[in-house]
Amino acid sequence: MQHRPEIDGLRAVAVVPVILFHAGVGWFAGGYVGVDVFFVISGYLITTIIAAAQDKGTFTILGFYERRARRIMPVLFTVIFCCLPFAWAWMLPAQMKSFGESIIAVCLFLSNVLFWQESGYFAAAAEKQPLLHTWSLAVEEQYYVVFPILLMILHRYGARVRFAAVLLMALASFALAVYGAVAFPNAAFYLPHTRAWELLAGSLCALILLKREQPGNDVLSLIGLAAVLAGVFLYDDGTPFPSAWTLAPVGGTALIILFAGPGTLVHRLLSLRLLTGIGLISYSLYLWHQPLFAFARIRSLTEPTPLLMALLTVAAVLLAILSWRFVETPFRTGRIKALTSGPRILGATGVVAVVMMVIGAAGRLDDGLSFRLPPAALAALEVQAHPDPAMTTCLFDKGEATLPHPIRACMTPNTEKSDTILIGDSHAGAITGEALRAFASAGLDLYALSHSSCAGFSGFVVSNAKYHLRCNPFFEGVEDYIAKSGIKTVIMVSRWSLYLDGNAFDNGEGGIEALKPTYADLYDRRDEMGGETDPARKERVLAAFLADIHAYLNHGVNVVLVYPIPEAGWNVPDLLARAAMTSTDVEPLGTSSDRYRARNAAVIAAFDTLDHPRLAKIKPSAIFCDSFVQGRCINSLSTDRIFYFDDDHLSNAGAGLLMPPIIDAVRGLTATASTSR
Q1: Which DSSP letter does residue 450 get?
Q2: β-strand 447-451 against 420-424: which pairing, if any?
Q3: Residue 462: in which H helix or E strand, if any?
Q4: Which residues of the chain have pLDDT under 70?
Q5: Alpha-carbon span 41 to 8, nearest angstrom
Q6: CB-based contact 30:233 (threshold 8 Å)
């Protein structure tokens, strides 16, 4: 096929935003649309090659797969091989297991399926997946398996039938993507049936231009380029993808392919030597950037600095130039004498893939090759390795409205009925096990129930799509039980400020919590929630918190109100383990007390206004902040005393510090109630 330099430039327009997006450059929040541009380009090029060869009678499946193997596999294997020593030296056991699985999935062309099952593309944990970006290669490879055979069948029926069939498939895939963006967004992002329309859009361009000259149209090609760039700069991780929004980068790319003919402004722009040079190395550049960024995040105890990410971007370019020159080009052009024939290149590819899969399987041995880690690192990880069974049992997440109260496993031993209940969100769930043990040791009964991402009252919805409508029915059921059972004391533990402000915690020292914005609004406004920064929403949510607390008090129920628990921002056990692996001293570990007060100022001020004889207030900041270390909220004192099992939930050791004042408060309120009677 005739070389089109503007396509090389378009590859640069695709790959640069992806890299800057993964580097965390805020202006490129929609940089991930570069992958969609790649899909359209791939569909166009592959269909052009196949259809042209079919028309000449020279197309063979073996020849097609030989060319794909020469193009894709050598540099991919090179990148994976180069990742291995860094994975050995820096990865925690869970990361090593996941990395081993991803190697196997890459070799089987199934990494998109693996990452769909593991986590969302935009999840913070995904940033530490060195092979995350191979999901798009898997989609293309799955396309390569099916589409050539389909074109062989359609070729028999003529060009019109072929075009109509491809168009119908594209429309069906697009419709499924639009539906999937709402019904199953994570699967829709990764799986081929909701991505196929993007590749097929390129195929349609190829079939249109197959036997005609490419027209030049400045207006349409400029609209296309503007549509692609609009996606890059205007979209973010909250934009449903793929969906109708994906029409901008996909349609824009198609317009460029169809109408950026020689002489047009877009053709001249995309044919600039800098862009075509980046385009030539774009495949290698795409493969190198994510491992560099991921291993930097794995190795750094905190979020890598912008300077480091900039240097790694330059390093990715240099590595891409080298691998394009010494790996891509020799294999693609057949200059490797031992691999000149199709069977040889395919056979060698299979052998290397098997070796890689064996290496990947080895990464799962011994719980992620944990013998690599020093004892201090293993001790730190032990805190999160075995969650307290009470949290697993008594923390709900499906909006269960009709639980068989009381649930025996969520009560202190030998308790038939408790006068005290602990309720709230996962912060309450995290302390449940230690609370049940402490109350039992103190000779007190306790019942504990909590629900993920719910503030602890009925009458609320949250922005998190999974839990949006689950909070209200669950806590309606809990409140009904409290009213009917004669519960005398309610202990409230919740991540109050999260539901008010919505944003993940940033400790200002490189510890940025792995959490999407999750804020609350009133249930009556479930179809018209206020925005994350809407002051009116915040005001009504905070007012509702106070009103719900007053409702308990006014009905004669004692309330032990636990103020916000300090958040860490960084995953405490992980950070301590990585510090131990690199012999870095971080003990005692803590975050700024001022940061805690600023984060929770509105909630603290509102709670401070509450005053009632049946109300007791517990301030975790008095325990964790300025007590062990002045000016700091303590996260851990040593690998034997770690107070969090992740970036914001208390471990059993941390919960143990909170129990004495809570028990004293329950006893005090009970004694006061008895005296008043």
Answers
A1: E
A2: parallel
A3: strand 460-462
A4: 1, 119-125, 334-342, 673-677
A5: 10
A6: yes
CA–CA distance, 484 with 481 (Å, rounded to integer): 5
CB-based burial label for 206 (10 Å; 0-12, 13-18, 19+) = buried
Helix (H/G/I), strand (E/B), else coil: 607: helix
pLDDT single digits (tens) 270-300: 999 999 999 999 999 999 999 999 999 999 9
Residue 121 has a pLDDT of 62
pLDDT tens digits along 177-210? 999 998 999 999 999 999 999 999 999 999 999 8
Where along the chain do its domains lie? 5-366, 387-566+594-620+651-671
Sign of the CA dihedral running 261, 267, 273, 275: negative
CATH of domain 387-566+594-620+651-671: 3.40.50
**Size of the chain, expressed as the number of residues it contains:** 677
Residue with tokens 């600095």: 305
Alpha helix locations (H) across 386-444? Answer: 389-394, 426-441
Backbone dihedral region of 361: left (phi > 0), alpha (psi from -120 to 50 degrees) or beta?
Answer: alpha
- Which long-range CB contacts under 8 A does 664-667 form with residues at least 24 apart? 665/560, 665/616, 665/618, 666/420, 666/444, 666/489, 666/491, 666/558, 666/560, 666/616, 667/442, 667/444
Compute the distance between CA of residue 173 and CA of residue 383 in angstroms, rounded to an integer: 45
Burial class of 422 by CB neighbour count within 10 A (0 to 12, 13 to 18, 19+) = buried
Dihedral sign of CA atoms 32, 37, 38, 39 in order: positive
Answer whether 597's CB lies under 8 Å from 564's CB. Answer: no
Q: If DSSP codes are grouped into helix, strand and coil, which group holds residue 407?
A: coil
What pLDDT does residue 1 have?
Answer: 63
Give pLDDT, residue 342: 64
Report yes or no: 30 and 232 within 8 Å, Cβ to Cβ.
Answer: yes
Mean pLDDT across the chain, nearest whole number? 93
Per DSSP, the three-state class of 259 is helix
